């Protein structure tokens, strides 16, 4: 079982994937990720507005709990833009009308005849159908509320929005894995167990350094998948994302078939195994045939000029134990295991103030000491005013003997909202937020910049996903390589005048020559000095000194 999807020929320049270079704005036919909420992402391929689509006069429409969003409102806008919901004509959808017609017909034969009649009418007037499909989409009208954000496709957002066919490798795991196996632009990476394609999209971005041409080595991912249905679905996604020339997908059982491509080595230096039993595939990832090291015809899938770095993704500790044992037998070194503990932090701004409404993210407490004193002064003034009014009414009641007046005052007090103790409720007015109130703030900053920046972590830490086992397989080392490396690292080996390479007698003779040379130099300097003194004396006395 070996089915390989080879990349396209390099006769023409391939279309660059939106995962690598999405551009500045959205385009027709491109993949976009709709962010409905913080953890609710939805992938969609944008379609051009070309008349009615699926019963909508506005063309293709995405319906969410936050409203309806025609594709025409999401085309040609910068990535990250906020898209307002639109009013769509859902009452004119053909499917609803057809459902009503079918429901009104009690007799099945009459319903079939009606449907056949409608089909005949449609076939008899193809021009009208074509005109309707090619009609210009209905003008979009914005709704009063509801919005989403449109994001470019990246491995991170794709991992959160892709259709799950298997357990996926999430961002905290694959970001650390790519770092440890040293995946960089220009690297060749082997992936066994493509699954849902989460790690494939992340790894191809890590090794991408351009699209390869004939005979040119570029960064590439060689992915293997055993399940046939997942293989075909993964191959379809790679074509839709324009990654099929950077990811070489193969349908194969790597336990028995290995990692060669058409009998040739991919010369990989980074390996990621997401397999149930990775220890059964490790014998294919060797420099020589483990069963017969003298076999000259055996081809290794590893790069002979670089060390290979591997990571296995196993959910159970028993798998880790067997994998580590197999690695030690096959010569892998620097073996260690890592478990990733992920915790998200949410950053927001908390607005503080007594005049703010009870909205989300608002702390209805005093912003500073001055605001607290002002509010206490206001409350105290109202309390004194209320106490004075209560005292006046009590004095009037004492001097008034009219029973009817007393009853009327009691009734008035009950309507006025008196408490059990005879005190009135002191109501503090909270002014709602308004653009004018924020414009008048002393800080002069916009509303979304008001308040202090706070960070809150998740209440629970998402700990175990799988155990990551890392190891390194060094390159083969011969005596010629050792001599070349020694000469490159220590160039003084070829020299002769170095301590440790000359015998004792030779060092003594060299020392004598140095001393004699120094002594001769001193005598010559003395003679030169005497000659200079003689010349100086002759000039001063005018007599030649013998």
Automatic annotation (TrEMBL):
UniProt-annotated stretches for the region Disordered = 1-24, 85-131, 385-442
Q: Which residues form the tRNA (adenine(58)-N(1))-methyltransferase catalytic subunit TRM61 C-terminal domain?
A: 146-472
A molecular function annotated in GO for this UniProt entry is:
tRNA (adenine(58)-N1)-methyltransferase activity
* Acidic residues compositional bias, start-end: 393-403
- What's in the GO CC field? nucleus; tRNA (m1A) methyltransferase complex
**Entry EC number(s):** 2.1.1.220
| Any one GO BP annotation for this protein | tRNA methylation
Which Gene3D superfamilies does the record match to this protein? 3.10.330.20, Vaccinia Virus protein VP39 (3.40.50.150)
| Keyword annotations | Methyltransferase, Nucleus, S-adenosyl-L-methionine, Transferase, tRNA processing
One of its Pfam families is GCD14
Its biological purpose: Catalytic subunit of tRNA (adenine-N(1)-)-methyltransferase, which catalyzes the formation of N(1)-methyladenine at position 58 (m1A58) in initiator methionyl-tRNA.
Q: How does it assemble?
A: Heterotetramer; composed of two copies of TRM6 and two copies of TRM61.
Q: What's the name of the protein?
A: tRNA (adenine(58)-N(1))-methyltransferase catalytic subunit TRM61
